[in-house]
Amino acid sequence: MNSQFITPQLFSYLFIFMVLLNLLIEWWLSKRQVNSVVSQSGTVPDHFRETLSIEDHQKAASYTTAKQRIGQLEMAYGVILLFAWTINGGMELLNQLWLSSNIDPLFAGVGFIFSFIFISSLLGIPFAIYNTFFLESKFGFNKTTITTFITDTAKSILLSILLGAPLIWVILWLMDGAGELWWFKVWAVWMGFTLLMLWAWPTFLAPLFNKFTPLDNSELNTKIENLLKSAGFVSNGIFIMDGSKRSGHGNAYFTGLGEKRRIVFYDTLLESLSDEEILAVLAHELGHFKNGHIKKRLIVSATMSLLALALLGWLIGEEWFYQGLGVTTPSTHTALVLFLLASPAFSFWVQPVMAAYSRKHEFEADEFAAESSDPKYLISALVAMYRENAATVTPDQLYSAYHDSHPPAPVRIAHLAELKNS
């Protein structure tokens, strides 16, 4: 596209159109999801009649509907804030405040970005409070106390400053003085930081928020070790996380890189599954490892971030980009934040593509689990997790295709049933 034909006004109109289009699509999909769940709440689907009670099915329907409706309000609120920051001058006002401070431009840029993040987080607190202390509490999931909520917030802010400030300083320094290929050097720094966080998270950062204790079940430990050995997976340990400290939801995952890799089960999950079901869930997670999904996702993420930074490398020199989004004084720090704010409006179509890619990986991991153990155990484990998490088993197909990183419950269970009978 020849930039000489793009005016600030044209870009403003295009930006507004794309934001509103995205909002309308999301609202439409959300309405479809609510209609699908509500219309099928009176009867448990055939695949689940022996494992889900009508009470559990209707609880999931009510929970899903409540989340969708508050989500619709939250999306509208987000659009209002987005327009306030951009075309209505919020970003320009904040930028001028920092420019008038007469401090070093690099430190002013870091301060600008952190103040933007802080104000945005502050504006999002009402929904965080409602979702945690009202919505989750209403359905019996919330275990977070006010003290834990405040402590978590304080820890997150402190970590953001300690880890984020040096990173942002380096990025802005490269953007200012690393020449035309600054975007490639920033990408290299960002990927290095990402890999460092993946390595450090399980051992040094996650314990700041949760308690991790070694699995204290010798019989189950032996079975798990045998499964890990057969998959060729070297682990730093098998740990139980005190997920019940904050929520009644359950999950399992493996995390970390190299020698820091570890298997983590939520304590809430262990309470609801048998040993065979736990092994089946673990086999699914190992399926991601055996199929190289983590590496593949890292490669995709790295490629997309490189392309995004290359695009920013072009936009940073275009005045219409700044003026069209309400900023009159171009700078590297405003370009970075404006890009992060505006890009979702033009790239929302990527979401269903990535969701489909993720669902493909989930099917492959299920297939590995079915080869490692009887699929009936993964089926029963999944149903237990749907029940404990009040996850709907009657989602709208379009909503699920657009949003869900995991296959919808009926499709996933049917697929496992086919593997069981094959």
Structure, explained:
The structure is a single chain. With 422 residues, this protein is mostly helical. It has one domain. The protein has 16 helices and four strands. A hairpin with a 6-residue loop joins strand 3 and strand 4. The mean pLDDT is 92.
Largest sheet: 4 strands, mixed
Average pLDDT for all residues: 92
Structural class label: mainly alpha
- Poorly predicted segments: none
Q: What gap, in angstroms, lies between the N and C termini?
A: 53 Å
Order of H and E elements: HHHHHHEHEEEHHHHHHHHH
Number of strands: 4
Helix percent reads over 70%
Provide tags for this entry.
single chain; 4-stranded mixed beta sheet; mainly alpha; 16 helices; 4 strands; 422 residues
